[in-house]
Amino acid sequence: MTDTTAPLISFSDVKKHYGEGSARVDALRGVSFDVTAGEVVGLRGPSGSGKTTVLNIVGCILAPSQGELRLAGEPVFAGGRWLRDDLRRLRLEAIGFIFQFHNLLPFLTSTDNVALVLQLAGQSRGAARRRAQELLDYLDVGHRRDAFPSQLSGGEAQRVAIARALANRPRIILADEPTAALDSQRAQVVMDLLRRVAIDQHAAIVVVTHDDKIADRFDRVLELRDGLLV
Amino acid sequence: MNLALRDIRHNIGRFLLTCVGLSLLLTIVLSMLGIYRGLIAESLTMARAPGVDLWIVETNTRGPFAEASRLPGDTREAVARVAGVTEAGSLTFQSVETETAAGKLRLYVVGSEPGRPGGPTRLVDGRPISQSRYEVVVDRSTGLGVGDRLRLGRREFQVVGVTAGQVSSGGDPVVFITLRDSQKLQFDLAPPAARRELARGGGEATSDIVNAIVARVNRDVPVAGVADGVRRWKHLAVLTQEEQETVLSRSVIERARRQIGLFTTLLLIVSTVIIALIIYTLTIDKTKEIATLKLIGAPDRTIVGLIMQQALAMGAIGFTFGVAFILAMKDGFPRRVVVEAPDVAALGAVVVVVCLVASTLGVRLALKVDPATALAG
User: Fold this and answer.
1) Model pLDDT for residues A137-191, shown as the tens digit of each residue
2) What CATH number does the domain containing A222 carry?
3) Number of structural domains chain A divides into
4) Inside any domain, residue A4
5) Rounded to whole angstroms, what are the CA distances from B363 to A10, B18, B296, B373?
6) Is residue A2 part of a domain?
7) Closest Cα partner for B288 from A38, A53, A107, A112?
8) Any domain includes A115
9) What is the DSSP letter of B172?
10) Which residues cross the membrane (chain B) (predicted)?
11) Which of A172, B98, B163, B273 has the fewest CB atoms lying closer than 10 Å?
């Protein structure tokens, strides 16, 4: 990560199509946007508008057909190819993912789910567990540290998932419908948390959502329709 | 953090149930190996029991177990006088079916001369045969005990001793009677047939026939040299103890050995397929978790480790249960099942290989999982 003043996410004229010829589907038709540190940006649009494709490209799990992607000022994709070999490492250290259905590993406790990503990044077991417990306390689920995901409520599980996403102190957080499975009150709590994380960690947060309950909780909302920002 | 172990602990009931299923399969594999070893052990029991160096049989035969062999009864005296031979005994062998209080009983009857090689050894009850007629020493597996009576042919015999583990290559319990009784049992004509022979003018046929002569050789004399000496008699053939054991283990039970070998191979293939399917199914069940792991940046080795370690754990636990089952059950089989440590170790190594091979299917599936699946809701 080279330029500290640059937008944390820079999406420049990104196009993505699937298939060729008569089977060609244009998922993104030249999308550009930036997200800076501390911003919580909503990404909305009807099904098939390209929201998940944007998330997959920013998450470095899908290559664009054309365009440029820069993360924290560093070019990651340009000229039709990835510019880094270690995308897995980039995802592990620089990007946090939050899912619609928490996606916690069912056989790990809350602490272990969070500690896992820290250990994958090379931290010792003890240090990872200490950091995991700090994060769980920060997100008000410290009292559920030894519970398995099946023993957690939807809101608790989502907070543990957020703790996991924050574990390696990523500057970029991608959330896919993080409140869709929660009631209105819990959805507001999750949005409060994301806002706090954006401020405390100077992180750029992109939230894909259909959820009207949280429509007014973003700094900006990007509206996608048929592969274009409107 | 060992994800495989955590997953196993979290789903311990299902995992152990799967292991038990696998262990039953491995128990069958081990029992087949044990039956095969038991066949060899049982077939060699008869050849090893007399503790002799040479088996003298009819020329051009490999008797008495592989082929029929008939020798004049006085051959023993000639063999006993060969230089280097310290002891020699005549033996007869025949299969008999008789009736006891417990029902029909198939027996392998050995006729031997008391005090000479070939008789019963290691009695677990009673005494050796001491009278010239109508006494019998039986194997424990007949269910008979000292004092019981046993009908062989037209005669009743008194059980005077009991041996253990003496069975034929066919698994029938062995009983020992005197050579004279056995010759009567095997070669005497039934009274109507004998009367018919007399009416036809035929004399009474001799029953002084034996199936084999066994001989012990002085330790200071080469066995091969003594065998060569006996072979000079054109009507005799000689097998050393080693040759006799080879005939039994490689020839008499060869088909059974190949049959069991093929069956065991098929079972191992079935085990491989079953383990592969189990691992594949477990991997499919974890597609979402694997996609999440990939998305959050877990290296492939973490995911491969999760699958392979579970496969190996399943194999190890299934194998351990399988060994425990067969050791607990082996004495309940109708025929001897011999579980030998090298066989168990070899199967253990095979199970490790099978688990690794079987898990490749799951590993391939896991490596193909698209991390984007985790975002698919």
Assistant:
1) 988 889 999 999 999 988 888 889 888 988 888 889 998 888 877 778 878 888 8
2) 3.40.50.300
3) 1
4) no
5) 36, 19, 19, 17
6) no
7) A107
8) yes
9) P
10) 12-36, 260-283, 303-329, 341-367
11) B273
Query: How do strand B209-210 and strand B212-217 relate by DSSP bridges?
Result: unpaired
Q: Which residue has the tokens 């602490």?
A: A111
Summarize pLDDT for A65-98 with one digit per residue, the tens: 999 999 988 899 998 899 988 888 888 888 988 8
Going A101 to A103 to A106 to A109, the CA torsion angle's sign is negative
Residues of chain A neighbouring B371 (CB-CB closer than 8 A) = 61
- State how beta strands A9-18 and A66-71 pair: antiparallel
- The number of angstroms, rounded, from the C-alpha of B158 to the middle of its chain's C-alpha atoms is 30
Cβ contacts of A107 on chain B, cutoff 8 Å: 3, 6-7, 9-11
- CB-CB contact of B101 with B115 (8 Å): no
B373 touches chain A (CB under 8 A): no
Alpha-carbon gap, residue B110 to B92, rounded angstroms: 6
Phi, psi of B109 (to 5 degrees): -95, 125
**What residue numbers bound the domain in which A91 lies?**
9-229
What are B93's strand-pairing partners? B110
Amino acid at B349: A
CB B218 within 8 A of CB B249: no
The residue length of chain A stands at 230
Out of B6, B9, B295, closest to residue A61 by CB: B295
B297 at interface of A, judged by CB pairs closer than 8 A = yes
> Is A1 contained in some domain?
no
* Residue B111, helix vs strand vs coil: strand
- List residues bridging with A81 in a β-sheet: A78
